[in-house]
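User: I'm putting together a teaching handout on how sequence relates to shape, and I'd like one worked example. Could you take RHH-type rel operon transcriptional repressor/antitoxin RelB from Caballeronia insecticola, show the sequence you're using, and then write out its predicted structure as tokens right after it?

Assistant: Happy to. First the sequence, then the structure tokens directly below it.
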Amino acid sequence: MRRTAENKLKVVAVRVDPQFEQRLRLLAEVTGRKQSFFLQQMIENGINAMEETWLPAGILEQVRSGALPQLKESAATADLFGGEVAD
């Protein structure tokens, strides 16, 4: 799939326990793939379970139908450069 402005991949930064980072690095080294490949796979394969656990039924139904609800500006989380976390 050719990337356009509309479907451009986004960067997400996370902090992980050093043990998980080492395991991810080992997985990447042994397989010759990038760490980002495996992180993408984990997200794609695990987001359904997370949504089912954490989203209210009404929002989950919207997500499953493809009608993603608009995010609130105030719901933003901290960015890579130390931005504030909104509640």
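A couple of points you could highlight for students: The first helix runs from residue 18 to 31. DSSP finds three helices and no strands in the chain.
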